[in-house]
């Protein structure tokens, strides 16, 4: 009978003379491939959508997508008025105050003068929450804006709220 001796697996050597080297190389390569896949999945794409145009008010299912409606009410189309382009009824906007409707703050600084501003604070993008005492308030960092021109009155905001030109059409305020 022939006596055959085998080496235990731990003593196996590769061409370089190091024990277990081929197995480590395979595992290291697999780990590198896995890490590359993970990083690719977590990366950002330059060809996708940007943050512009996003809002805290998503478009309801079945509504028109952004840009398909020229109503002027919001980037997503008519979300508040009964007729296309109607932002609010004149009777709904108090003199010396305003309302928040759709994507806008609609104000009446003087009798018969109506203004519309973006409801998004220029400081860090929070939505303003109320209009009171001639001032538009942002709850996030306490910025305050004028109802007459959207200019910052106090708080960290330094830029005015963007204005949208409006006009009165009968009993309604519409985008001009």
For this entry, give a set of tags.
single chain, 4-stranded antiparallel β-sheet, alpha+beta, 176 residues, 11 strands, Rieske Iron-sulfur Protein
Molecular structure report:
The protein is an alpha+beta fold and 176 residues long. Helix content is 12%, strand content 25%. It has a domain at 86-175: Rieske [2Fe-2S] iron-sulphur domain (Rieske Iron-sulfur Protein), CATH 2.102.10. It has one helix spanning 21-42; strands spanning 86-89, 97-101, 104-110, 113-118, 130-132, 135-137, 144-146, 152-154, 163-164, 166-169, 172-175. A hairpin with a 2-residue loop joins β10 and β11 (172-175).
Shape: elongated
The CATH homologous superfamily name of the domain at 86-175 equals Rieske [2Fe-2S] iron-sulphur domain
CATH topology of the domain at 86-175: Rieske Iron-sulfur Protein
**Topology as a string of helices (H) and strands (E):** HEEEEEEEEEEE
The proportion of residues in beta strands is 25-35%
Mean pLDDT: 75
Q: Give the CATH class of the domain at 86-175.
A: Mainly Beta
The biggest sheet, with number of strands, parallel, antiparallel or mixed sense and barrel status, is: 4 strands, antiparallel
Count of individual beta strands: 11
Low-confidence runs (pLDDT<50, min 5 residues)? Answer: 44-55, 61-82
Q: What distance lies between the first and last C-alpha atoms, to the nearest angstrom?
A: 104 Å
By secondary-structure content and strand pairing, the structural class works out as: alpha+beta
């Amino acid at each position: 009978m022939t006596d055959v001796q085998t080496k235990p697996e731990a003593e196996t050597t590769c061409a370089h003379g190091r024990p277990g080297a081929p197995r480590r190389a395979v595992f290291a390569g697999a780990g590198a491939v896995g890490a590359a896949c993970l990083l690719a999945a977590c990366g950002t794409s330059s060809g996708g959508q940007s943050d512009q145009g996003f809002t805290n008010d998503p478009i309801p299912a079945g509504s028109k997508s952004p840009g398909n409606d020229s109503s002027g009410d919001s980037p997503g189309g008519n979300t508040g008025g009964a007729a296309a382009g109607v932002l609010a009824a004149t009777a709904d906007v108090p003199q010396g105050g305003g309302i928040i409707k759709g994507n806008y703050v609609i104000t009446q600084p003087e009798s018969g003068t109506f203004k519309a501003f973006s409801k998004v604070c220029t400081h860090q993008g929070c939505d303003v929450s109320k209009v009171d005492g001639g001032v538009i308030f942002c709850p996030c960092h306490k910025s305050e804006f004028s109802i007459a021109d959207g200019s910052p009155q106090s708080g960290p905001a330094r830029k005015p709220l963007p204005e949208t030109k409006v006009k009165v059409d009968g009993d309604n305020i519409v985008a001009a």
